[in-house]
Design brief:
about 325 residues; alpha/beta; Nucleotidyltransferase, domain 5; 2 domains; five-stranded mixed beta sheet
Length: about 325
């Protein structure tokens, strides 16, 4: 079989898919991203997760034609190098991911930014089907973006779509990139947790950290945020509303600039929070938009947790076909 492996490498999880040539999903396997050990430990876990994926699908490694990897941060796709990924511990220097994983499995490996891969999948198979120009805003540990313009993935100089580092609040909260007021500082799960901890330590009551312990987690996961909001926790609800407002502001401004057909909101945090979060994003975007009715073209991801790995597999297939 001519199968492709897609990998969505995140700060907390490694999602892998085995994908057929028609884009259908054969099997899934998820692993946990190591919090220590740096790139070596993470890429070893990637190898283990892919091997477990193949066992689950009852397929030999020789059935894999190519591997696509979507990774966060700054990417040199042509060289197959993650230049920097601030949300993955220890990835502050260039890592030749494509070469290392290619040597592990003996197949061509294509590397892409994770949200660029996600928006490719949504464009072809998900919420962006039939659209010519669309933007993806994906809220997970950080906030990433991807652009489809005139039906094609727009790379710019290699970092196009970095909407997470668009400033939405002048002189606002400090972002992990070192700047102030970035969208990621308000809508990234890592930044939300940092803000919640600061307020909790200052005496603000919240159930967030009790829920975290009850669920056996060491971080405020998307599920923890959802459960706290469902319990009408004032701190959690306030921060999530603020996050939606920041996403809506960025989405509306980008839509004005690019005259795009659709904005796809995805990532673990946004998809877990669902329609209520989407409604708040639309409400925040409406007064920003030159054409307020286009707020209805802001939609949730249809592919959910699969979109990053699926898009990586599709891009890998494209590059293999063109090589």
């Amino acid at each position: 079989m001519n199968l492709r492996v897609g990998v969505d490498l995140g700060a907390t999880k490694i999602q892998t898919l085995l994908v057929a040539s028609d884009g259908s999903i054969v099997a899934r396997k998820r692993g946990t991203t190591p919090a220590t050990g740096g790139p070596s430990a993470v890429l070893t876990r990637v190898q283990e997760t892919i091997e477990q994926l193949l066992v689950r699908a009852d397929q030999p490694a020789t059935a894999v034609a190519t591997i696509g990897i979507g990774a966060p941060g700054q990417i040199d796709a042509a060289a197959g190098v993650v230049l920097q990924a601030v949300n993955i511990a220890g990835w502050d220097q260039p890592v030749p991911v494509a070469g290392i994983v290619g040597d592990m499995f003996g197949v061509p490996v294509a590397l892409a930014n994770d949200v660029q891969a996600s928006i490719v999948a949504e464009h072809r198979l998900g919420a962006g089907r039939g659209r010519t120009n669309l933007l993806g805003i994906f809220c997970g540990t950080g906030v990433g973006g991807g652009l489809i313009l005139n039906g094609e993935l727009w790379l710019g100089g290699g970092a196009a779509g970095e909407i997470g580092h668009t400033v939405v609040v002048q002189a606002g909260r400090q972002c992990g990139c070192g700047r102030n007021g970035c969208l990621e500082a308000y809508a990234g799960r890592g930044a939300l947790e940092q803000t919640a901890r600061l307020q909790y330590d200052a005496g603000r009551p919240t159930v967030l950290f009790d829920l975290m312990e009850q669920q056996g987690r060491t971080r405020l996961t998307s599920r923890v945020w959802l459960d706290a909001c469902l319990q009408s926790d004032e701190l959690a609800s306030g921060l999530i509303t603020e996050a939606a407002r920041a996403v809506g502001t960025a989405a509306g401004s980008a839509a004005n600039l690019l005259d795009i057909d659709c904005v796809v909101i995805g990532g673990g945090l946004a998809t877990r929070l669902g329609d209520r979060f989407l409604g708040d994003v639309r409400a925040a975007a409406q007064p920003v938009l030159l054409r307020p009715e286009t707020a209805n073209q802001i939609v949730l991801s249809e592919l959910g947790d699969d979109c990053g790995a699926l898009g990586a597999a599709l891009l890998a297939g494209d590059r293999l076909a063109g090589s």
